[in-house]
Specification:
The mean pLDDT is 96. The strands form 4 sheets. The protein has an 8-stranded mixed beta sheet with strand order 1-2-8-3-9-16-10-15, covered by helices on one side. 30% of the residues lie in helices and 21% in strands. The protein has helices at residues 4-11, 31-44, 137-155, 182-185, 232-242, 282-303, 320-323, 328-339, 354-361, 384-400; strands at residues 48-52, 58-62, 73-78, 93-96, 102-103, 109-110, 125-128, 163-168, 189-193, 200-202, 207-216, 258-266, 270-279, 308-316, 345-346, 367-368, 382-383. The longest helix is centred in the C-terminal third of the chain and has 22 residues, at 282-303. The protein is α+β, with helices and mostly antiparallel strands and 403 residues long. It contains 10 helices and 17 strands. The chain folds into 2 domains: 4-205 and 318-400, Zn peptidases (Aminopeptidase, 3-Layer(aba) Sandwich), CATH 3.40.630; 207-316, Alpha-Beta Plaits. Helix 1 (4-11) packs across helix 3 (137-155), helix 3 crosses helix 10 (384-400) and helix 5 (232-242) packs antiparallel against helix 6.
């Protein structure tokens, strides 16, 4: 049997970064390279109905053990990596962490200040990068853990119900379940394996929207610009200043929401600001979207009608209200962690997962840890032992539905 660690070290070498600007599904063809490799491995394990859909999602079915009548469970992870940092030519390294600063290269280091939780893993083997790319534990760790769990269940004849294995594309750009039909999947419950430190269970996530402000200016020679020019870049800065300065990611935590400026470009004649809007509370979420639109209207009042154009699009919603009626899913996960010597902890997600959209589509789907830290950046890392621990948790969890 191939370990989750060995699988993970292979999977992260695939360049699978998604791209929100292509307008295709999947957003990048390169994601299919890993998908095709996973299909070969699933077929070698003799899973049934192994296929890739039009969006690049890979699906397969592990039939129930003989005589077992149990709910159909989906185990889900995503293949893409975030565009926030390069995911090309990832070079994973195994290091024994001895404490203090861990240098990845001459300019990039891991420290407790930059990587909270690092000092709790002194003496352990960590998987890190060379400091020039992200690692891809988000979410290739989840992919590796699911694959290793499935192989182990087969090889050790672990009793289980029917299991649907699903590896999605484009989760990082909010399109992770495009092409999936919950009714066609035929699953009763699901778990995404896409969380952080070992033991975390998440069933509360942000309500999320993307927002774009486009400012249309009036260009004229600066020598004769008085009372004529409308500098779109300047107006865009004025818009940003209207938003609450403390409601940003770097000043919030826990259940606190934010406006996050992710990209800006512009000139005198046109400027564009791209944001994501987040809040756990649905009412506050709606208020944030309304404020964004109101600030755009305020620009029109200042500079003239047609100056500002605001586009706001919801991405996903808090899955909490869809999970609470099925709270046994959380209790089963807690028991599976404890059975494998891991203390579970329910924490809110300051983000979202495929499970959020699936839960709202009718498939209750909380999120489980992978063991990774510092996602979406060059300081991403994961303890090697966490990969094996999560493999065992998934086996125990899946087995519990067959009891």
């Amino acid at each position: 049997m191939e370990s989750a660690k060995s699988r993970f070290l292979r999977y992260v070498t695939y360049y699978t970064t998604s791209d929100e600007f292509t307008g295709t599904s999947p957003s990048t063809e390169r994601q299919k390279d890993l998908g095709r490799a996973l299909m070969q491995e699933l077929e070698a394990l003799k899973l049934e109905d192994v296929h890739m859909d039009d969006c690049g999602n890979v699906l397969a079915t592990l039939p129930a053990s003989k005589g077992v009548d149990a709910p159909v469970i989906a185990l889900i992870a995503h293949m893409d990596t975030a565009p926030d940092a390069s995911g090309e030519n990832v070079k994973p390294r195994l290091v024994r962490y001895e404490g203090g600063e861990l240098k990845l290269n001459d300019t990039v280091s891991l420290t407790e200040a930059l990587c909270p939780g690092l000092e709790s893993h002194v003496g352990e083997e960590l998987i890190v990068t060379d400091g020039t790319t992200l690692l891809g534990a988000d979410d290739k760790a989840g992919v590796a853990e699911i694959m290793a769990a499935v192989e182990t269940m087969i090889e050790k004849n672990v009793k289980h119900g029917e299991v649907r294995v699903i590896f999605t594309t484009d989760e990082e750009i909010g399109n992770g379940v495009d092409g999936l039909d919950v009714q066609e999947l035929g699953c009763d419950y699901g778990y995404t394996v896409d969380g952080g430190p070992l033991g975390e269970i998440e069933f509360e996530n942000f309500n999320a929207a993307s927002a774009v402000l486009t400012v249309h200016g009036v260009g004229v020679h600066p020598g004769s610009a008085k009372n004529v020019m409308i500098n779109a870049a300047t107006a865009a800065m004025a818009f940003h200043a209207m938003l609450p300065e403390d409601e940003v990611p770097e000043k919030t935590d826990g259940y606190e929401g934010f406006f996050h400026l992710t990209e800006m470009s512009g000139s005198v004649t046109e400027a564009t600001l791209r944001y994501i809007i987040r809040d756990h509370d649905r009412e506050r979420f709606e208020e944030k979207k309304a404020l964004f639109a109101d600030c755009a209207a305020r620009l029109d009042e200042i500079y003239g009608d047609g100056t500002a154009e605001a586009q706001i699009s919801d991405s996903y919603y808090n899955m909490k209200e869809k999970i609470l009626p099925h709270f046994h899913l959380i209790e089963r996960a807690e028991n599976a962690f404890r059975a494998n010597g891991v203390e579970p902890q329910c924490v809110p997600i300051r983000g979202g997962t495929d499970g959020a959209r699936l839960s709202w589509d009718g498939l209750p789907c909380p999120n489980l840890s992978t063991g990774g830290y510092n996602y979406h950046g060059v300081r991403e890392w994961i303890p090697a032992d966490s990969l094996e621990a999560m493999t065992n948790v998934l086996i125990t969890l899946t087995e519990s539905f067959a009891e």
